[in-house]
Amino acid sequence: MFRKNYRQDNATAYAMLLPILILLTVFVVIPFLYAIRVSFYNWSFYQESVFVGFRNYDLVLTDPLFGKSVWIGLKFAFLVVPATLILAFLFANVMKNIGPRMSAFVKTSVYIPTIISGIVASIIFVFIYDYTGGLANYTLGLFGHQPKAWLAEVGSALPSIAAPAVWLSFGLTSLIMLAGLFDIPESYYEAADLEGAGTFRKMVHITIPLMRNVILYLLVTGFTAQISQYELSLVMTGGGPLNETTTPNLYIFNHFRNDVLVGNSIAASLLLFVVLGGISAIIFRVLNSEKAVDG
Amino acid sequence: MQANSRKRLTAVAAAPIVFSLALAGCGEGSGGNGGNAGPSPSAASSPAVGASASASAGASASPGSAAPGEKVKIEVWSTKFEDTTSAWLKKWVDAYNQSQDGIQVNLTIVPGDAWDQKMKAAQAAGKAPDVWNISYNGIANAAKLGQIQALNDLTDPAVFDDLYDNMKDFVSVGDKYYAYPWLVEPSTVLYYRKDLFQAAGLDPEKPPTTWDELLEYGKKLTKNGVFGFSTAQVAPELGWTTWGLQYNAAGHLPITDDWSQADVQNDGYKQLLGFYQQAYQSGIMPKQQLAGYTDATPFGQGKLAMEANGSWAIGQLRNSFKDMLDKVGVAPMPTIDGNPANTTATLGGWTFAVDGKSKHPKEAAAFISYLLAGDPNIMLDYFRTSQFSKFTPRKSVDEAMNNDPEASKDEVRAMIAGKIVPYSKPEPIYPWDISLAFGTAIESAMKGTDVSKALDKAEKDINDFIAKNKLAGTNPKQ
């Protein structure tokens, strides 16, 4: 009787898994393998595709702009992710301690930027950064400063784009942090109070270590999402003053749009996949070198 | 250990999902997403892309494949230009559909920034439209790659005799015509505010004719929150808007005619970069552009005293900024030496072509002939709704315009047709990367890099591109 139940469970389990496996195979695995195959050709939709071996990869790797875009992507992620994590952490702590009615309102309104499309947010921020009529330069004017070319100056373009990125990812990050905070048993804090620990010590020795899994998850997903960000640069600067805001995906997108044959874009996408996968793996190794401690 | 590596594999495999979700999430409209679903079914069928091309070529050899009485449906895609253009297209497509029973045209208007994705996705899925518009500088390459078909056998060749001689060259490769021209528009014209000239003590009937004069006037006009001058300032826009001035400064474009190497080190280009550098650094231009080069809205709103823009801007001003019109003056773009008989603009423009894999090429060509090469009144209607800011490549339409009371009174049109179009050159057909490299050099110079260094970098980038892509000797027009 025991063995019969076990086999039934197995069949049900596979049946439950089947839909997502089919979807993943059709929309992820097959296109991925096809992309690898096509990247070795000069892929043309109208004529015979010509086998060219590693030429597409060679074109991408020897393009200084590809390396620069990966570097810009890393810079962008380093600007956005720590800022988002810190702000979200502080805000989550605030949210934890406010009353129930206020907290419902705050949680909804902080989540709204997450559902706004990146394109809409970019357009809003283009208005904010407008040289003559925008809110940012108006505020500067109140303090007596000259208007600043936020999106056109080489030094300020990337940080100016980081601002809407932080705004967009802030909501979801702080709600997940809040959930992580609620997971920490109150008894730890009470014990620390008895020992006479101050707020800062409690945060450093209790909260942050116990939130490590949450922080790790947010770090990896945040990092992957931000290094793949391209809509903000596409709409706000088009790649930026002298390619200063050309993130890797925007580099691929520009090649896809402008190139006559798309082999270059495919090779770049696959190389980027390797880069991102490698970096994600490194983050996992570095931050998860001990086994995850549960509680 | 196995669980860890599987977790890692899933996390790493999730990256493409995130990317594709992001791409799907911000695609323009649902058309692009529909196209994205295409690649998986075609994955099985495209191992021999050549085989499918020959199969459809066989099918298109028999155009009468529709049952008698049944209309042949053809898909026509046009880039979204002005609203007046979209309205004109819809009107004449409807008129065509009603005027005959054999062909049903389905028009789709695609926003310009979504065009490349939508088109490539459709081409990959084998669902490219029968008729699509293509700009002059794309024709030679599209013909070489088989993306568009020759029209000589599909339509009455007499329609091509109506074109001006220099414009026949725009749409032909060798002895075959690959598209029919719709319009031409010079890329660079100077618009200026006569009232602001007067207020600054300058003669409103004497716009600047040299670059030095432009800079000088710009300084006098920059005051009270108004900027003296505006033109393109980001590399992608500088790449194409300066073609005319590149001809003006050096007599040629940044590469040799056989496309074998960069041709960038000359005094003319140094002066060109110097001009843009001074315009930006001197403060007569806004440090961050107020709008794209092709958009005359800041000028219409009174924020600029002078602006370089294409001939289409007068159409925009006439349609949207009517109260500004009596204060606006229009003149050719200033030149390096004041010589008015020299190129300052390139003739851009659009055409309609028949897709290389179209299943109904004869019907597609018939529609193009009707719309663009047929009754001159159809084209006259177009030029009228665009406020005569665009120009025709056809002799018969020009005649009709000279007889039209409104058109013949239009001074701006007469000025552009008389002083700019005759000296304008066609747009280059070499790959965009080369123009972008030169545009990047100009942007570097504007943002402070030394002119010689910027030109050296452009030369290196162009030569690298030529070498990597084996461009030398591949000019289809040679």
How would you portray this structure in words?
The complex is a heterodimer of chains A (295) and B (478). Chain A is built from 13 helices and two strands. Chain A is mainly α and 295 residues long. Chain A starts with a helix and ends in an 8-residue tail after the last helix. Chain A has helices spanning 2-38, 55-61, 64-96, 100-115, 118-128, 135-142, 157-182, 186-195, 199-210, 212-227, 231-236, 248-258, 263-287; strands spanning 41-42, 50-51. Chain A has a two-stranded antiparallel sheet. In chain A, a hairpin with a 7-residue loop joins strand 1 and strand 2 (50-51). By secondary structure, chain B is of the alpha/beta class. Chain B is 48% helix and 12% strand. In chain B, the strands form three sheets. In chain B, strands 1, 2, 3, 6, 10 and 11 form a six-stranded mixed beta sheet that branches. In chain B, a hairpin with a 2-residue loop joins strand 4 and strand 5 (176-177). In chain B, helix 13 packs across helix 21. Chain B is globular, with a radius of gyration of 24 Å. Chains A and B meet through helix 1, helix 10, helix 12 and helix 13 of A and helix 1, helix 3, helix 4, helix 6 and helix 21 of B.
Q: Which features does this protein show?
A:
heterodimer, A: MetI-like fold, 13 helices, B: 478 residues, alpha/beta, D-Maltodextrin-Binding Protein, domain 2, 11 strands, 12% strand, globular
Question: What do we call the CATH topology of the largest domain in chain B?
Answer: D-Maltodextrin-Binding Protein, domain 2
Oligomer: heterodimer
CATH architecture of chain A: Orthogonal Bundle
Give Rg of chain A in angstroms.
24 Å
Q: Could you please say which CATH topology of chain A applies here?
A: MetI-like fold
**Biggest interface and residues each:** A-B, 54 and 54 residues
Q: Could you describe the largest sheet of chain B, including whether it forms a barrel?
A: 6 strands, mixed
Ends distance of chain B = 63 Å
Q: What's the helical proportion of residues of chain A?
A: over 70%
CATH architecture of the largest domain in chain B: 3-Layer(aba) Sandwich
Average predicted local confidence, pLDDT of chain A:
88
State the CATH class of chain A: Mainly Alpha
What is the overall shape of chain B? Answer: globular
Q: Which CATH class of the largest domain in chain B?
A: Alpha Beta
